[in-house]
Amino acid sequence: MEYIAAALPAKKTIALIAHDNKKPDLLSWVAKHKALLEHHHLCGTGTTGGKVATALGLQVKQFLSGPLGGDQQIGSKIAEGKIDCLIFFWDPFTQMPHDPDVKALLRLAAVWNIPIACNSASADLIISSPLFNSPLERMIPNYDSYKNKREQL
């Protein structure tokens, strides 16, 4: 696989997602870091995004609820290069009916090399990094030849 450099901007678009049992943890984490997060663009799945916006007064673009396709909508935005960071507090102890969607979302975040946090410790490491509010160069797969072939069809 060939890779090319791509930039994450200083003002990032951050996706916020939490499974039901983890929503209180995410709300607590966002409240703790509200002053930093309000300088970025926030989005989230429907229920999580709505809870963050209502409880903390932050602007959050809301997609559908995760089980109704919100995870896939966010995954699509990652593939389009429109989401720069994924904060996803997932519940490792509860089986989810939309588990294939969750796995696909995590896979896309890994493929497109964006930062991913799955709990408060990893989210704290991301947000406390000096790179959080700075541009960041990352390597992503170069699909130009694939895209060119498809356009020729």
TrEMBL record:
InterPro entries: Methylgl_synth, Methylglyoxal_synth_AS, MGS-like_dom, MGS-like_dom_sf. GO terms for cellular component: cytosol. One of its GO terms (biological process) is methylglyoxal biosynthetic process. Keywords: Lyase. It catalyses: dihydroxyacetone phosphate = methylglyoxal + phosphate. Its EC number is 4.2.3.3. Belongs to the methylglyoxal synthase family. This is Methylglyoxal synthase. The gene is mgsA.
